[in-house]
Structures are given as C-alpha cells and as structure tokens.
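Quick one:
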Amino acid sequence: MQKTRIYWFTQLIGWLTYFTVNFLFFYVPSVKDLLFHLLLVPSAILLTHAFRYFIIKKDWLQKAVPFQISLAIIASLVLSPIFISIQFFLNTLIFGVALKLSFISFLQPLINFWFVFFVWSVLYFSFHYIRNYRKAEIQQLKMQGSLKEAELNKLKSQLNPHFMFNAMNSIRALIDENPQKAKEAVTQLSNILRQTLTLEKNKLISFNDEMTLVKDYLALEKIRFEERLNYSLQVDETSVQYKIPPMLLQTLVENAIKHGISKLTDGGVVVITTKKTENKKLQIEISNTGNYNPEENPLSGYGLENTRNRLAFVFADDASFLIANENDMVKTQIVIPLL
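Output:
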C-alpha cells in the first residue's frame, strides 16, 4: 500500500513539475495555456502507467540491465509519438486550431519527449533495481544470520554429552572425598553450561573469557583422568587484546582430549601457548600427545571443518588454521587478527 502511494505521488509531482516549468518558461501565461498543460499531466501519467503495467505483467523488472536499457529506448520511441498525437488533439480541442504537421514540427517534440520518457524509464528501472538489490542484500544477511544460528546450535550440540555425564560422576565421587573440591567443580561445570547457553548473543568474546572456559573444562577433565592428564597454559599477556568466536578453543581442547589423551593408556599432556606475531596477529597453539591421521579421523569428527568455517565467517582471509603431527604431538595452530 505504501509503495503504491509513493508511486502515484511521484508520478503526479514529477509530471506536474515538468509541465509547470514548461508553461512558465516557454508559453505566454493564459487560461487556455494553463488548461492545456494541466490536461497533459494526466495524459503523461496514463501513458507511463500503461507502460508500467506491461513491465510488471511481462516481468521485465527481473531482466538483465542491458535488456532494460534497450526496452527503455524502444518504449520511449513508441510513447513519444503517441503523446505528441495527444498533444495535437488537445491543442485543437482547446484552441480550436488544428496545427499543421510537418517533419520539423514533429521531429523536435519527438526528440524532446523521447528523452523525457527515456529518463522516466531509467528512473523507474533504477528504483526497482536498487530496491531489489537491497532486498537481496537483506535476504543474504538474514540467511547468514540463520546459518550462524544453525552453526552455533550445532556447536552447542558438539559439547560432548559424555563429558557432562563424566563430569557429574566425577563430582559425585568427590562429594565425600573432597567436598570443597566438589563445590569448585560444580561452579566450573556451571560456568561451562552458562557459556554454552549464551553463545547466540555474541559473535565474538574476549580471549580471557574463552580461556576461563577452557580452564574450567580442563579442571573438570583433570578430575576424571587424574594422572593421565596434565596440561600447561603459556598465555602471552597481550592476548587479552584479542577477540575470538565463542568456544573455539574449548572445542579444539575437547578434541585433543577425546581423540588424543583418552586413547593413550598412559595419558598425555595438553599445552596451550599464545604469542603476538610480527604483523600484530595472535598465534594460538594447542599441542597434545597423540597422532593425527586425517583418514582415520575425518575433519568432521575432529570438529576441524566447523572451526575452519567459523574462522572464515568471522575473519575471512585474515585468519589461518593448521593441524599437523610434530614430535609425537598433534599441533593445532590458529592465527587471528586484532579487531
């Protein structure tokens, strides 16, 4: 409804302005001249509205730009002589004198009105082109938002249910043995759950918040694995300046324990180190005892594909992700820019 009102308003104001300017600058003011120009306004509106009807009916708004330009040229050549004929008819009706048609008297208004109708067509097509472009852009943003939501929901589901059960069983065993430590473990588990439930609210979180989550996770897993799991955090103090996607590191640490430490009889170690690179990016390395075999552990199983996609979604080409075996350790490296 609003779009229709805008269309009719611009039609009326546009043509009224055009013929008012013509009347004031090119004619001697008189009642008949005023009536003549006033009648030209609905005539021009009727012609252009008929053209608009065919544009919509034939779905020409969805055609390519070169087609629309060609259509504007051809349509203007058709509308121009029709409008000139209407002009000659109104002139005879109002002034009572039939104008003599000659090549020159017909060619000059033909060129003038061809240009006027061509400008009208270009403006009409341009308006809808910009409008459709914005609609497509909004649709794309909505789609990206939906993909992000789906991605975060998928990430939530990646929080291993077995970890939750194992953590609760570990806490249960601690209640009688070490009540204070059991309380600390409950708090750590609560922090992890809270962070998981608030994922969709944040595209990025501070590195410190992410490391707090990782520390809570490692502390709970340490209760379960005991001597089989050792970990070391070597975090550069400049890391606090950076922001990362929520649960990015936690997922990689979980993979390191699930696919590395848990499969080894003697367990192993997880080492997290960070440092600022020469180009002011943050390099994060997660090393764990074990062996990475892409054939035995597909990217989807390791959650690595999800990590790659999230980094690309947030940082585009400014971030990098690598995983490789190095000296009986699996090293995962992430490099992110400062935002």
